[in-house]
Amino acid sequence: MAGSLSHGWREELSVTLSPSAARAFILANTTVMRPPHVPEIVLHLATEAHDLWLRTEEELEAIGLPPPFWAFAWAGGQGLGRFVLDHPELVRGKSVLDFASGSGLVGITAAKAGAAWVDAADIDPFCAQAMSLNAEANKVQLASRTQDLIGVDEGWQVVLAGDVFYDRNFAEQLLPWFQNLAMRGATVLVGDPGRSYLPRQHLVEQAVYEVAVTRALEDAEVKRTTVWSLG
Ligand SMILES: C[S@@+](CC[C@H](N)C(=O)[O-])C[C@H]1O[C@@H](n2cnc3c(N)ncnc32)[C@H](O)[C@@H]1O
C-alpha cells in the first residue's frame, strides 16, 4: 500500500539510497497525475492519499529522506511550465537548463516545446529518479544532473528555474549567477508565487497566472504566480 514505510525501506533508503530503491519508493508513494496548470504533462505526484503527504520534515529526515520536493508540482514550476508551453519559440531548438528541477516539470515542458537539449539539475538524488520516471511518462528526454551547478556556465541558451526563492541563502547565491548568465546572453526565466526572497527589483514581469495549489503545502487554494525574466 502506498506510503507505508516498512523497516526494510528505512534501512535501504538511509543506508544505500540505491537508484532502484529510490525508484520503487517513488512509485509506491505517488500517483500519475496532471498538474492543474500544466495539464499537457503527467507527473508522479503525492496526494492526500499518500503517507508521504502527512509526514513532517523531521520524520522524513529520521528515515534518511530529504523533503520530497520532487513529489509536488510547485506553483512556480507550474507557472513557468505554462509560459514555456505557451511560448515554445523561447526554447525551440535551444539548449536549456531546468535548474532546481524537482519532479522535472519545467524541463519536461521545455522538451515538449521542442528544446534541442534539456539539462535538469537538482542536488536531491531522489529527483534524478523522479525525473527519469516523469520523462518516461511524457516520452521526452532529460539529462539529469545531480551536481550543484550554481556558478557554472555550460553555455545554455535558456535557463529556467521554478520556485527557487524560498530560502535566503539559496536566493543570495542564485541572483549573481542568474545575472551573469543573462549578461552573456542567456534567456533566464523564473517562476515564483511570491516567495520571501524573490529579488523583485532585479526582475522583469513576463506573465501572471492563478495556479491551483495544495492547501496542505501552501495554506491556500490558489497562488498568484509570476514568470519573471532577468534584466
Ligand atoms: C520548491 S522545489 C521546486 C521544484 C520544481 N522546480 C518545481 O517548481 O516544481 C525547489 C528544488 O530546489 C532544489 N535545490 C535546492 N538547492 C539546490 C541546488 N543548489 N542545486 C539544484 N537544486 C537545488 C531542491 O532539491 C528542490 O527540488
UniProtKB/TrEMBL annotation:
<keyword id="KW-0489">Methyltransferase</keyword>
<dbReference type="GO" id="GO:0016279">
    <property type="term" value="F:protein-lysine N-methyltransferase activity"/>
</dbReference>
<dbReference type="InterPro" id="IPR050078">
    <property type="entry name" value="Ribosomal_L11_MeTrfase_PrmA"/>
</dbReference>
<keyword id="KW-0808">Transferase</keyword>
<dbReference type="Pfam" id="PF06325">
    <property type="entry name" value="PrmA"/>
</dbReference>
<dbReference type="GO" id="GO:0032259">
    <property type="term" value="P:methylation"/>
</dbReference>
<dbReference type="InterPro" id="IPR029063">
    <property type="entry name" value="SAM-dependent_MTases_sf"/>
</dbReference>
<protein>
    <submittedName>
        <fullName>Methyltransferase</fullName>
    </submittedName>
</protein>
